């Protein structure tokens, strides 16, 4: 039930915390190497996080590759924001921790979300993991 020391219980606590954000529609922790979710929470009518994972994984990989090509360390990447007409997809690669290959995704309703608060909370959530 562990991946590189990351407890399933810690993932569930982190996802519960993420889902308390104003406007949260879904949250998940993914392994961007295998594209597998390690945990996910969504509202009943929320987004399909399994399908979203494949697309978001490509975005994370591309950003990390671009950093590598520009001789920058992956730890410098705090988050990636994808803005849709009605949603924010906030991605936080967990590269600053020992859990290389993981990222946290939170999908937020754009009309209800406060991005500054969400970004701050994701930093705290990362500390849980």
Q: How would you briefly describe this protein structure?
A:
Helices cover 36% and strands 29% of the residues. With 129 residues, the chain is α+β, with helices and mostly antiparallel strands.
Q: Name the strands of the widest sheet in spatial order.
A: 4-3-7-6-5
Output the structural class: alpha+beta
Shape: globular
Percent in strands: 25-35%
- State the helicity in percent bands: 25-40%
The CATH superfamily bears the name Dynein light chain 2a, cytoplasmic
Task: Give helix and strand order, one letter per element, not per position.
Answer: EEHEEHEEEH
Looking at CATH, which topology would you report? Beta-Lactamase
**Biggest pleated sheet:** 5 strands, antiparallel
CATH class category: Alpha Beta
**Secondary structure tally: strands:** 7
User: What is the CATH architecture annotation?
Assistant: 2-Layer Sandwich
What's the total helix number?
3
**Overall mean pLDDT score?**
86
What is Rg? 14 Å
Secondary structure elements and pairings:
Layout: E1 2-3, E2 6-7, H1 8-19, E3 24-31, E4 36-42, H2 49-69, E5 80-83, E6 87-93, E7 102-109, H3 115-128
Antiparallel strand pairs: 1-2, 3-4, 3-7, 5-6, 6-7
């Amino acid at each position: 039930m562990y991946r590189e020391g990351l407890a399933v219980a810690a993932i569930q606590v982190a996802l519960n915390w993420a889902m308390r954000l104003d406007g949260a529609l879904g949250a998940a922790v993914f392994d961007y190497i295998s594209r597998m979710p390690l945990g996910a929470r969504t509202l009943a009518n929320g987004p399909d996080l399994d399908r979203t994972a494949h697309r978001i994984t490509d975005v994370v990989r591309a950003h990390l590759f671009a950093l590598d090509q520009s001789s920058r360390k992956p730890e410098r990447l705090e988050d990636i924001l994808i803005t849709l007409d009605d949603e924010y997809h906030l991605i936080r690669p967990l590269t600053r921790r020992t859990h290389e290959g993981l990222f946290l995704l939170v999908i937020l309703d754009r009309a209800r979300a406060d991005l500054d608060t969400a970004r701050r909370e994701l930093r705290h959530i990362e500390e849980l993991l």
